[in-house]
Specification:
Two copies of one chain form a homodimer. Chain A is α+β, with helices and mostly antiparallel strands. The first copy, chain A, folds into two domains: 284 residues, 3-Layer(aba) Sandwich (Aminopeptidase); 121 residues, Alpha-Beta Plaits (2-Layer Sandwich). Chain A has 13 helices and 18 strands. A six-stranded mixed β-sheet of chain A has the order 1-2-6-3-7-17, with helices on both faces. In chain A, strands 11-13-9-14 form a four-stranded antiparallel β-sheet. A three-stranded antiparallel β-sheet of chain A has the order 4-5-18. In chain A, a hairpin with a 2-residue loop joins β4 and β5. In chain A, α1 crosses α4, α1 runs antiparallel to α13 and α11 runs antiparallel to α13. The two termini of chain A are 15 Å apart. At the A-B interface, β9, β10, α6, α8 and α9 of A face β9, β10, α6, α8 and α9 of B. β11 of chain A pairs antiparallel with β11 of chain B.
């Protein structure tokens, strides 16, 4: 108790410096999807290593076939559990740039929020755990648990080299539980622990028609139009009830229990302000489920981007030579990503108009996960979050995907505590991404308490 | 007869210079859709004026609310018909640039073809009539008919200011018949006169969903996706038989006569090499009609371009905030463009998913036209084309749209002779647009003979 009080005091004294260091981190445009940012990726990895060393851990960059992984550890706690902390230092592309109020890589504080690409996803959230280690080390001189940090740089492009890293360093990474802060609280003042995540598949489909763009007057009516063909394919993905129409798509889905549906219904979720915050007049999705159920526990199929033909100013009367669709499905427990991709490919092939050829690229996939609500680690996390945010957490699911949770289970054999410090209003993956400073500080405090709570069980 | 022989000799002697002057014309990137090319538009208009003066006509630039119209005339032929020649000096955007073998505005001759944006559409074809005037003036010192040239700079963006020009100068433009060379021969060695054109409507539809791009995991399943919504709208435009599904779309269509269908069937059209030239394995379109019938005399509905969400490298897991579709319908005789646009707007509105808002922009429209096959002007044109190309023309329709033909009929009360010197293989509106030099020279000769033939009737 003595120790945690000193830690809390240290956190208060150093709060402003922590924010300044996060701002420095956010100035690095470590966009993993765009090769031009390769040097920034390196810079961000070096920044994380320096932070870990400053906190009192040993730290190094481990090369991969892609971006380096930062590995840091402190393992001198005897007879104490070992916690693996995962996070990522790469960020989403900032497009569309013209919609940012302040530039995405010039972190700016407005009304208690820090605005920048990566503020909440995941630089700000991830940094909380390094800062909590620092607080223990600078006050107690040690941690009550052993910690191993794995901070990667390819989360936003599919974590393609992480599984190999986990497999190659399986012995070194031995641990009792994993911790990730890359999700959201239920809302401001309603901290949450996320016990379920959706999975994902992501593909890119290119439909090719004529050798080159054709005059739509001279040739229109004689050959299939790849843009119209793309629309036919996309439209076929849903039926009129908003259900995904790919054959067998729902076959493996584990339905929500009546108890889960009841718990969801009790949460302080109001549809009207939610829709208002998104700028949408009416909800839409699979019929027969509530909005929270559809977001957290039902699979979806969304176009993320598409392009075909002339997209400049004014008209251009052509039949485009090709069209490209980027598509993701969100998956729920027991759906097999590979099986879904295969069904989608087959289904897409069947939708093609005569004379249209399809190219199909499978980006990455991950199954959904649901965690044990009653493990001792989950109990420790509940106490820690309550300490950090001043009120006990609600237990929720989340619609996003963190593929590494599946990898930790499969390769390292451990469950993951999903302790999200962010908010759904943080605009992650969107313009004007931000992180509330009180959530940043609450997250650091919760993390610091987690080390103590885990040691106590 | 004496006079036309001297003209023919002049054309042979000056053939190389004519090509050089066309190349100079094609070096001017007069792209009307892109505001950045405004100075080039002016430059191209000045070039046309200089050509007309060099040919012996008076010529001036007439300002409009948009790009200037070049007006030139020679009207000293007593008791002779007056011919209005229409053409355009603006060109389509050259995109996609990376598919050009040589740059679009660096005219290059390869194997008897002159490659450049605008080579056939319409700079090369239009110039033939100025050169034929020059030949008469430099040899006979006069023309056997009166000529009035109207060369505009907004054909590729809807000719928005032409009708007002025609109305304001109706008296000045009084004529007996109009001539336009902006269509194609039936094929190499098979010259043609086009007696029918399809009409057009062009619109841009923007579908708006959430205020900004959303994370597809966190929010997916709760709101309609504007890209999926666009696909639903586009897909709904056709039924499974390839017919346009907009209510009432075919109500006003005048069916092809049995005689026309028989004539079309006799033309030397082979589907296999046609498809091969386009790089397409199978034809596609409205069932129950031949490929020529579908191209020339059946209405269509094609996406010309669409864009939504993230279209860069790799995946980005978002629900896009909006999607944009550029769409054209080709119309056939008796379809009313305004009525079609209204039906399309209403139909599109009905396809919207909940929470999606539509913006609908109507670019421009023009009805289809069919010309009198038996007028004296048509007889003169048949003789002239036969003289220019060495073989009598076939009578065809064309799938493209030349809205001004309808305006000439409506405002000036005259029919139009559509004398196309180009080929369908000229790649108009596509990368590597070209014009066969023999078609350029054949066109000049046919035009020179047309002045004589028209005077003789």
């Amino acid at each position: 108790m003595q120790e945690i009080r000193a830690v809390d005091t240290y956190l208060r004294s150093n709060a402003n410096r922590f924010v300044a260091e996060l701002q420095e981190f956010l100035r690095i445009p470590s966009v993993s999807a765009q090769p031009v940012h390769k040097p920034d990726i390196r810079k961000a990895a070096e920044f994380v290593r320096a932070q870990c060393k400053q906190a009192g851990m040993s730290a190094k960059l481990v090369p991969t076939a892609g971006n380096p992984i930062v590995y840091a550890e402190w393992t001198k706690a005897k007879n104490a559990p070992t916690v693996l902390v995962y996070g990522h230092y790469d960020v989403q592309p900032p497009d569309p740039l013209d919609q940012w109020e302040t530039p995405p890589f010039e972190p700016t504080i407005r009304k208690g929020r820090l605005y920048a690409r990566g503020a909440t996803d995941d630089k700000g959230q991830m940094l909380t755990h390094i800062k909590s280690v620092e607080a223990w080390m600078k006050t107690a001189g040690s941690l009550p648990v052993n910690v191993k940090f794995v901070i990667e740089g390819e989360e936003e492009v599919g974590s393609n080299n992480l599984d190999l890293f986990l497999k190659e360093h399986k012995a070194k990474l031995k641990c009792d539980v994993a911790v990730i802060s890359d999700t959201a609280q239920f809302g401001p003042g309603v901290p949450a622990i996320t016990y379920g995540l959706r999975g994902i598949i992501a593909v890119e489909i290119t439909l090719k028609g004529p050798r080159q763009d054709l005059h739509s007057g001279v040739f229109g009516g004689s050959v299939a139009n790849p843009a119209n063909a793309a629309a036919k394919l996309i439209a076929a993905l849903h039926d009129d009830a908003g259900r995904v129409h790919i054959p067998g798509f729902y076959d493996d889905v584990i339905p929500l229990t009546a108890a889960e549906r009841a718990e969801f219904a009790k949460l302080p979720f109001k549809e009207a302000p939610y829709l208002k915050s998104l700028g949408v007049a009416k909800p839409h999705g699979e019929s027969g489920f509530s909005t929270l159920e559809r977001r957290w526990a039902r699979p979806t199929c969304d176009v993320n981007g598409m392009i075909s033909g002339y997209t400049g100013v004014g008209p251009k009367t052509i039949i485009p030579a090709q069209s490209t669709i980027k598509l993701t499905c969100r998956l729920v427990p027991n759906q097999n990503p590979k099986r879904v991709v295969d069904s989608l490919r087959k289904f897409a092939q069947q939708q093609l108009l005569p004379g249209i050829r399809m190219e199909f690229q499978d980006f990455h996939g991950a199954p959904a996960v649901v965690c044990d609500l009653n493990s001792p680690y989950m109990q420790a996390a509940r106490e820690a979050v309550a300490a950090g945010f001043g009120t006990p957490p609600v237990m929720i699911r989340e619609g996003g995907s963190i593929p590494v949770v599946g990898s930790f289970k499969q390769i390292l054999g451990v469950d993951t505590l999903l302790l999200g410090w962010g908010q759904n209003s943080d605009n992650l993956h969107s313009p004007n991404e931000s992180f509330r400073l009180e959530d940043f500080h609450g997250g650091i405090k919760a993390s610091a308490h987690l080390w103590g709570e885990l040691a106590a069980r």
